[in-house]
Amino acid sequence: MRKTVVIIDDERLARNELKKMLVDYPEIEVVGEAANVDEARKIIEELNPELIFLDIQMPVKTGFVLLEELERVPIVVFTTAHDEFALKAFEVNALDYLLKPIDPKRLSDAIQKLVFQDDRDLIVNEGRSENRNFLSDLDQVFVKDGEKCWFVKLAEIRLFESVGNYARVFFGANKPLILKSLNSLEERLDPKTFFRANRKHIVNLRMIDKVEPFFNGGLLLEIKGGEKIEVSRRQAVRFKEMMSL
User: Which of 110, 151, 155, 168 reaches 20 to 30 Å from 122, CA-CA?
Assistant: First the structure.
């Protein structure tokens, strides 16, 4: 199955050179290109590509800003002349990084990583959620907190916690803050996976280890990370209806 690709680089010659190199890979279909972040965001939202080749240093907005602005983050291969931007922060989370001028062998390695990546790890959700407006647990989001950055699958996030106009995201040992309200997150998350336990918390139902009765008809959830979250009495009724046979 061919993988759809968008190339994002402010240099036209660089885009053309990469397109020429990708002609040798029938498993790759270049469906669009962009010269800046605003163009790229529109094209990605319209075409929903499986992969983007992304330059980092571009006028006005960087490639990092693009990732912050996207709701769904495709698989990313960085293409940059500045290895200090990608090597340290993204070599684990991005599919690959390619230093300019792009070495054909390194490009081949990146394509092979894409081809052999398990379908479960694909970012694009092909109808697994009944409502395509919801982000599914297979979708991946870009989280940035100060100088730290992560690509995180929603399935790995166990908890969202409201902190004023921000939300704290709990995954692994990390708890970064993002500039999103809990209400806006709730509108985008699949209710079959994420449950609004109370005014301050949204929990991943698949991350619940234990459920106990709690004060005044509520419930107490113990999450895999050790957090204990109270479910309000009203939400406890919904929780029991959802989780019962």
Answer: 168
Q: Are residues 9 and 109 in the same domain?
A: yes
What DSSP state is assigned to residue 24?
Answer: T
Sign of torsion over alpha carbons 72, 50, 130, 156? negative
pLDDT for position 194? 94
> Which amino acid is it at 194?
F
Mean pLDDT (the chain) is 85
Residue 195 has pLDDT above 50, yes or no: yes
**Mean pLDDT to the nearest integer, 124-141:** 58
Query: The domain that contains 39 carries what CATH number?
Result: 3.40.50.2300
The residue type at 208: I
Q: Can you give the length of the chain in residues? A: 245
**Domain with 159 in it:** 146-243
Find all residues with CB under 8 Å of 18, minimum gap 6, and list them: 7, 9, 53, 79, 102
Query: Is the per-residue pLDDT at 96 higher than 90?
Result: no
